[in-house]
Structure formats: C-alpha cells, structure tokens
Amino acid sequence: MEITKILQILAYSVTVLAGIGTIIGIIVAWRKRWFQQLKPFSKMANTVNIFMAEMLPSILEKFESKDLCPDGTLVKWVTLVSKDKISISSPKILNEKGKKILEESGIKEIIDNNKSELIKKLKDKKIKNLLDIEKQSFYVLKSLEKREVFVPIKNYLYNNPDSYIEAILFVGSIYLRDKYIKKYPTLLNKM
Question: Between 130-142 and 73-81, two packed helices, what is the crossing angle to 10 degrees?
Fold first, then answer.
C-alpha cells in the first residue's frame, strides 16, 4: 500500500473520530443544559405530587360531605395513588410495602385494639357487596382521625414525611375489610 493511501485513510479516520467526538460533546452539553432547564419543572412536579397526595384528599372529602362529588370519590383517588402498596388483584391484597406500613404506622394495632367497635360501625353501614365493605372500611377508619387513638399514626407521619395519612388509612382499610369478612364469612356466599 502506498504511503499516500495510508495517509488518506488515517486522515479520514481522524476526521470521522473528531466528528463523532464533536457530536458526543454537543449531545452531552445539550443534555446538561436540558436537565438544568428541567429543574424548575421537577420542583413543580414535586409540589403537584404533594398537593395530589396530601391536599386533594381533604378537598375530595369536603366535596363528598357536601354532595359535590359522588360518594366513594375519595376512596377511588386514594386507591389510585396507593397502588404501590397492594397487589393488583381482586380482592386487593397488601404487598410487602403495604404490610410494612400496616405494621410500622400503628394502624394494625389500632384496628386490633378497636376491632369490635370498628366492625360494629361497618355493620351499621348499608353494605350491599364486598366492594362496599372495602370502601366503607376506609371511611370508618377515617372517622377515627381526630380521636386520641390516632396519635401513633400522627407520630409515624411526623417521623416519615414521605407518608401521608390517606395511604395509611387505605392500607388499614384492606386489613379491616379482611377482619370483617372473617367475622362474617357468610357474606362471601350472599354477595
């Protein structure tokens, strides 16, 4: 091979490598600027997530109490944002994350210590099917929120700022639903 041919191949290779290096450099620089431009959007997304998890449930609860939205809207919303705590099946079953919250938050102990009262409250509801038990379990637990018995959950929330009360109630409602069905197994056959 002639020397000129070798030099041409070498020059071509260097040009191609320099071009690839330049393209990679442009992409890296653009991406860096792009990520920095996304930071304000990331902060805004976090704010929206906090609103959706913590503020919206309170608003939905008020709307439900004033008949401004259908009954069960709050439970549907909480179910939607708490899907990472259950296995997607019917009936809903707590996954490991849900079981951990059930134990650590104190909701399991509250349910176990107040089981008779909670099951009586559920029995007083107009339950027509198994899904009603699940939904009403959430509302029965929510009714305890302002009582002294709820202090352990409030302490848990203080120490776990990424958690929110509705998620704990949702996890507890699955547990309470199962306790209710265990006490009244004939409901499974009737419904």
Answer: 90
Q: Are 172 and 102 in contact (CB under 8 A)?
A: yes
Q: Which helix (H) or strand (E) holds 87?
A: strand 86-87
User: Can the peptide bond before residue 161 be classed as cis, meaning omega within 30 degrees of 0?
Assistant: no
Q: Which residues in the chain belong to E strands, given as ranges?
A: 86-87, 93-94
Residue length of the chain: 191
Instruction: With H, G, I as helix, E, B as strand and everything else as coil, classify residue 37.
Output: helix
Q: Could you report the per-residue pLDDT of 48-105, keeping only the tens digit for each?
A: 666 666 666 777 777 777 777 777 777 777 777 777 777 767 788 888 999 999 999 9
Sequence-distant (6+) residues with CB within 8 A of 160 are 104, 105
Structure tokens at 34: 């792009």
φ, ψ of residue 56 to 5 degrees: the values are -60, -40
CB 171 within 8 A of CB 82: yes
* Number of CB atoms found within 10 A of residue 153's CB: 22
Asked if residue 181 lies in contact with residue 133, where contact means CB atoms within 8 angstroms, the answer is yes
Strand partners, 93: 87
- C-alpha distances (whole Å) from 2 to each of 8, 49, 109 are 10, 67, 86
Which residue is associated with the tokens 């399991």?
A: 108
